[in-house]
Amino acid sequence: MTASVLERLPTFTLAAMAIGFVVSLAFGGRFRHLSGKSFRVWLLLPIGLLLQVLVQRDSAPAPFALLLLSYVCLILFGIANRRLTGMWLIVLGFSLNLLCIGLNHGMPVSRTAIGSLGLHEKPVGVKHHLERSSDKLVFLGDIIPVPSPVNEALSFGDMIMTVGVADLLFNLMQPPRKEARARSRKRGSRPVPVVGKLEAPPLDDSPLSPDLQRVLDLVQADARSSST
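Request: output the structure for the sequence above.
Response:
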């Protein structure tokens, strides 16, 4: 509870990342496709994450302001890259956390949630505090107990953000659309069997039966009589 996003969410987030990787590989994704992806205003991502770490230091100036700024950087990065599938879930998760932290000058931590996990340490630092009667929108706080190996109380924003991370990684590893369409056409194509030309049966030179010969003679005689 006392750590930053980088320190307190790795188990939960890494599990989501692993799921995203495994499922993507199962559906034809490859790690090589990650190298071809580009992000807009990518500097906002490391800046936001570094600020999350910085606010945990006792010597950090205006830690609460830096905390809010870190979320703004992360949200702006997500909005700039909203074209990527899963990014909107990440933006929504960060936004819910920012709203709750901004209203309460820190994230409220449910006593019931940490008690059910057997945690007795009081959260310290600018980012978290035990739930107070004056806190607002406490349902957006850390109220969801997640047992071992995570063993943390998480917020709805954390959960939504983690699902977004898994969805984002899954789609980033998928082949580009052109390659996927070519692969689909290749799978769907089937060799067309070559059908030879039909040959007419050979003429039979065997003599006609007497009855058939008589019928043919009558037809020919009738044709000659009608012509005269």
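The CA atoms of residues 188 and 220 lie 59 Å apart.
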